[in-house]
Amino acid sequence: MAGNSFGKLFKLTTFGESHGPAIGGIIEGCPAGLEIDLNAIQSELNRRKPGQSEIVTQRKEPDVVNFLSGLFEGRSTGTPIGFTIENANQKSKDYSHIKDVFRPSHADFTYEKKYGTRDYRGGGRSSARETACRVVAGALAKQLINSITIQAYTSSVGALELKKTYQELDLSEVEDNAVRCPDKDMAEAMISKIKAVRKEGDTIGGTVSCVIKNVPVGLGEPVFDKLHADLAKAMLSINAVKGFEYGSGFEGTKMKGSAHNDIFNSDGTTRSNNSGGIQGGISNGMDIYFKVAFKPVATIMQKQNTIDKDGDQVEMQGKGRHDPCVVPRAVPIVEAMAALVIADHLLLQKISKL
Amino acid sequence: MAGNSFGKLFKLTTFGESHGPAIGGIIEGCPAGLEIDLNAIQSELNRRKPGQSEIVTQRKEPDVVNFLSGLFEGRSTGTPIGFTIENANQKSKDYSHIKDVFRPSHADFTYEKKYGTRDYRGGGRSSARETACRVVAGALAKQLINSITIQAYTSSVGALELKKTYQELDLSEVEDNAVRCPDKDMAEAMISKIKAVRKEGDTIGGTVSCVIKNVPVGLGEPVFDKLHADLAKAMLSINAVKGFEYGSGFEGTKMKGSAHNDIFNSDGTTRSNNSGGIQGGISNGMDIYFKVAFKPVATIMQKQNTIDKDGDQVEMQGKGRHDPCVVPRAVPIVEAMAALVIADHLLLQKISKL
Amino acid sequence: MAGNSFGKLFKLTTFGESHGPAIGGIIEGCPAGLEIDLNAIQSELNRRKPGQSEIVTQRKEPDVVNFLSGLFEGRSTGTPIGFTIENANQKSKDYSHIKDVFRPSHADFTYEKKYGTRDYRGGGRSSARETACRVVAGALAKQLINSITIQAYTSSVGALELKKTYQELDLSEVEDNAVRCPDKDMAEAMISKIKAVRKEGDTIGGTVSCVIKNVPVGLGEPVFDKLHADLAKAMLSINAVKGFEYGSGFEGTKMKGSAHNDIFNSDGTTRSNNSGGIQGGISNGMDIYFKVAFKPVATIMQKQNTIDKDGDQVEMQGKGRHDPCVVPRAVPIVEAMAALVIADHLLLQKISKL
Amino acid sequence: MAGNSFGKLFKLTTFGESHGPAIGGIIEGCPAGLEIDLNAIQSELNRRKPGQSEIVTQRKEPDVVNFLSGLFEGRSTGTPIGFTIENANQKSKDYSHIKDVFRPSHADFTYEKKYGTRDYRGGGRSSARETACRVVAGALAKQLINSITIQAYTSSVGALELKKTYQELDLSEVEDNAVRCPDKDMAEAMISKIKAVRKEGDTIGGTVSCVIKNVPVGLGEPVFDKLHADLAKAMLSINAVKGFEYGSGFEGTKMKGSAHNDIFNSDGTTRSNNSGGIQGGISNGMDIYFKVAFKPVATIMQKQNTIDKDGDQVEMQGKGRHDPCVVPRAVPIVEAMAALVIADHLLLQKISKL
After folding, report:
1. How confident is the model at residue C166, as a pLDDT?
2. Could you state, in order of their start, the residue ranges of all structural domains in chain B?
3. How many angstroms away from the CA of C73 is the closest CA of chain D?
């Protein structure tokens, strides 16, 4: 109930703070008999890992997933899949400077007020470290949904915005550069921008776009659990996300119905796809595409004024190794959450008609 | 499970097609002892009602809510509150022209494929008529959350966009005009625009902004049921919605952390509010504000090519009385869904600490 | 959340007090395309109806179910099925004598303390009248589960206990007498007993047995949602139920493993069936059978001492028309709840393996 | 969804097979700020541990619980509490004899048919080993519910049945003997019985009774989540349980209403307690008491005929170290499940009225 589960039939429940012994989770509802590629799961986790390139945090976190149950002789057994990821970084010595201080635009203040207490070391439960568990479950979901492909990419860093549509890009190039932008020139500009921002001790926001292909017609459970409503919740549940739009999105609000409507071809496909692959909350077989907004990381390497627990003004400065821009590492997280939504709705769809 | 419930503790489950005998719902989890103002609930329903002004659909739907249980001697009893709203408009004669036709950018095609059948009269379950039930429950939720106020307003119609922030507007003027825009000049321009679009037999999109004030610190259940994640899902579950952003939103992605961070005052309030009243998924006591994108209504009074069930190309034209722009009537729906989220999280918060 | 829903995928949510305008419910998760026999549903409701024989309450309640949604052209559409049953008996004049009094072994005291208020007329929400909604949903579930048959019968009234096993009885004779006992001699004795008890102004308890045949292997979701665990909860949720046992039940605790174990035949059936058709929480294809204990009705036509809201001792006597023994009318309710459990688990089972 | 969670607000989700690396779980919904006594949790686990006396299985399983999250500086933080218990016994060598064989009255056959596969080593997920996780969560729940005490005890072994009511016993003596029966003479007889049965290579069933004291008035969520309905489900979800009764139970069905009704004292307590502390599904402040039936353990040390996967008849004999009677070790499990129910309903009750 308390907000640590995602999904109804294909369901992930997670636990763990950044500086406890381990984080982990339980994946329920994976049908029995699925052949599981453990290396593919670890590979996804590596896409999210700190230290993978020079534009992300240089923290050392090996992030190896250990499966504890639910798999036997290479296949899912239908029983819950428990897993843990040990926290390598759990020494507490570096956190005395934030023990009694509320960092601006972090969750320190709100956790303290909500729970009356908090594990202040490295953000505790509010640390983005918990998203590693999402990536594990999402990687498994990707194996379940099989021929449905999910590909996210960096579509903007600060004001540097990729104007090309996803159809104009070669999405197989996403992993070719550190910023995960499938446009070589733009990628270079983005990387330079992130380096410049880091040099200032500052951070910058950005957006991630995502495309889901080969979705069967029929996924989505109106009226509240529309497919895009669940995608929106999935994305907004990721740390630092401030917005979501799918299909024609905010720009579509400026259009007239006569231009916005997607006219059918005889086979049920549509000529345009302003609907973003979803009509009435249910997938229509066209590509699903959406965009997610990430704010700039709150931890900066500059002096800031803030308050402590007593309300006294104090000066603080970020320590440690943080991401100057969260977007490159967010790409696999966006994919993972999308995969969880699609897997869940694939199962839900199995019981919608006789 | 099948997508007709919203909320965990304060929970609405709805039923009903546009052309069956009635729509309705069950509200669970309203604590016992709440004094209920039935007139206030009907008033909210009237804000959503067709025919209320010259820029909305002229259909005649009285939309009177009947409460069947859960209330006794003017107060909630803690038992489920059942209600119905009769469908005045349930004669089927007008719908033969769409019986075998899939209207572009409607849910006809997807419902047919998902369920293998559908009530084709007036959209059936996919009709926005079901949102009337949301308004009933939301109006009751508003009475529960009491001093927390929720005010939505039209912030754009097509390209006509209100540039003022909500702080620069007098939100008490929202109901002063038919388009529900609290800026008189802009409201007039919007109304003219909607009339012009209607004259063309066309429709237009727009955005609704919403402000929630007096929210206590501590609402939101990380890591998946963050307050803004539930707001996003609530909004995306409304018919025709294509996007959601809160706080600094998509614009905030262009900012640097040093500019985006909200610096604390000594009392725990913040100087700026790019966070939109939520940090780490938990309300921080500042105003919550967000914006919702609505696409143009798909039913237009122009000829369009489309297909029938056999995949044959046919020509069709909208009949009946439809909204040229959904935004004015969406304002109370946005408020209702926001109220459901806040009420649910208020109850959830009661058990977060000893 | 607040306890008014039953089931996960095939789900019933109910509302209604005995003396409000109506009771009703929403059935979610019925797959689209099911041909619905409305008469069969009303027939089940008639089996539960007051006034059907001389040994049950003589209250007049027509109990006609009205379906409001989810059905179209004789079939389920996959959307929620809303229904109401009007309360004919809703005049409040007869209830002043219990307004401020807590009847012994009723829910008056506990509702008052839990909610701080209650609809005292006829028991309000605690009235067994709500079980009518269960019978409606159960009757629909019976149509979904199709070839699986569920037959309950009265197996004891007071100390009059049917010693024959269900295999020794002809269950097609259950409806042949007013007490619903498929043994003619025992039925007559039970009827005489109930009449005698009523004459004393007293009431008597009894048990209902139930047999489910043709269950496919594989229903049940360990480790918590074992099939028999859900059956137990279903039964204990019925008013006046005090106990549940399945298979060898309490008597089986006296046996040794060597005698209790069910030895397999080559086809996977078992020679004995002490397991009651369920092993490890999952149906094994053998008959499921269980027994449910009902306490004597608390409303008696004799003077009793009790207390009022102020804790003062008062004398009271039951008024109105009540059942001297709840068991005959409980038979269709037991079947209905069993049908809900089986329908739900049939759907759950569809996603247990690839 | 798939049956691995118990509870709504105070919620346990478990994972793990008997012969994987570890079993474990996640406890959600424990309010922040609860002081946690880790030793008390381990002590409860020790009460369930194999090898603790000469009448239980002599397997060596240290069963040490490791907490991974949700606790900080001795208190709950409001975040999910993850834990694992390593499987010491995970070598697979002993299980070749059951790999392709379906043991009588075990879950081998049903798991194989349901999931199409199974981890055959030691019962896999169907092993009672998973109840260790329940004991961990229940021990934590006991600390939350604080002054409410839960005490279970062995009330019968085979035909040896304790006739005294719980009021006639000194429940502080439960732990004084290996069989956990608070009557010295009966305990000795039971122990002798179990030893004799074991000598035969056989097993025997029994019952566990449980008493919950100091329960506040108001726990329970009608109409489906009645307090006793949730207790029934909790108990029936434990391995080997075949029946549940509370208050007057099955015997109460033989009584007349005039004798069964519990007459109020002026303070709201009742003279008798046939209601078993629950009226209308809601606790009334009197002691809650119930009884649980356990079948004889299916694994016996005698030759039995059974079938293999191909349906061929084979002869088999239990190996390894198994319990001749499950009841003594079931006592802490019954308490744990009762504690989970009470903790959950305590939290649910906090939001039932303003």
Report:
1. 98
2. 5-352
3. 32
Please give the Cα distance from D322 to D128 (Å, whole number). 11
Cα separation of D203 and A123, whole Å? 53
Look up the CATH superfamily of D5-352: Chorismate synthase AroC (3.60.150.10)
Classify B290 as helix, strand or coil. Answer: strand
Q: Which residues contact C49 (CB under 8 A, 6 or more apart)?
A: C61, C62, C63
Q: Provide the b/e sequence for A52-79 (b: ≥16 CB within 10 Å).
A: eeebbbebebebebebbbbbbeebbbbb
Token readout for C87 is 């309360």
Q: What is residue A89's predicted lDDT score, i.e. its pLDDT?
A: 65
Q: Do D32 and B352 touch (CB under 8 A)?
A: yes
In order of C337, D11, D280, the CA distances from C134 in angstroms are: 7, 27, 17
Q: Are B277 and B212 in contact (CB under 8 A)?
A: yes
Which residues of chain B are within 8 Å of residue D353 when distances are taken between CB atoms? Answer: 31-33, 78
The band of C202, judged by pLDDT with boundaries at 50, 70 and 90, is: very high
Backbone angles phi, psi at D114, to 5 degrees: -70, -50
Is the N-terminal amide bond of D223 cis, ω within 30° of 0?
yes
d(C-alpha B86, C-alpha C68), whole Å: 9
Do residues D109 and D102 make contact, with C-beta atoms less than 8 angstroms apart?
A: yes
pLDDT in tens, B12-27: 999 999 999 999 999 9
Q: Would the CB atoms of C82 and B114 count as touching at under 8 Å?
A: no
Give CA separation, C221 vs B196, C104, D23, D109, in Å: 59, 39, 18, 15
**Complete edge-to-edge strand list for the sheet that includes strand B313-317:** B101-102, B303-308, B313-317
Residue A2: pLDDT over 80: no
The reply to whether omega before A223 is within 30° of 0 (cis) is: yes
Residues 6+ apart with CB under 8 A from A232: A244, A246, B232, B233, B235, B236, B244
ipTM: 0.98
Collapsed DSSP state (helix, strand, coil) of residue A90 = coil
Q: How close is the nearest chain D Cα to the Cα of C72, in Å?
A: 29
DSSP-assigned beta bridge partners for residue B210: B152, B290
Does residue B82 sit at the D interface (CB-CB below 8 Å)?
no
Task: Tell me the average pLDDT across C241-258.
Answer: 98
Integer Cα distance of A50 and A324 in angstroms: 12
Residue B13 at interface with chain A, using a CB cutoff of 8 Å: no
CB pairs under 8 A between C and D: 378
Best mutation target, D194, D242, D345, to test chain C (most C CBs within 10 A): D242
Q: Cβ contact (<8 Å) for C31 and A353? A: yes
- With CB atoms and an 8 Å threshold, state whether C32 touches B115: yes
- Chain A neighbours among C 247-276 (CB < 8 Å)? none
Checking if the pLDDT of D1 tops 60, the result is: no
User: What percentage of chain C exceeds 90 in pLDDT?
Assistant: 88
From chain C, pick out residues whose CB is under 8 angstroms from the CB of A26.
Answer: none
Q: Find out whether C232 and D242 touch, Cβ atoms under 8 Å.
A: no
Tell me the per-residue pLDDT of A182-241, one tens digit each, with 9 for 90 and over. 999 999 999 999 999 999 999 999 999 999 999 999 999 999 999 999 999 999 999 999
Neighbours of B163 (CB within 10 A): 9
- Report how far residue D238's alpha carbon sits from residue D134's, in angstroms, rounded to the nearest whole number: 9
CA proximity to C339, closest of C134, C43, C45: C134
Strand-pair category, D75-76 with D149-157: unpaired
> Over the stretch B139-158, which tens digit does the pLDDT of each residue have?
999 999 999 999 999 999 99
Distance CA A54, CA A63 (A): 18
Chain C segment 167-226 residues within 8 A of D by beta carbon are: 197, 200, 202-207, 217-218, 220-226
Amino acid at A260: H
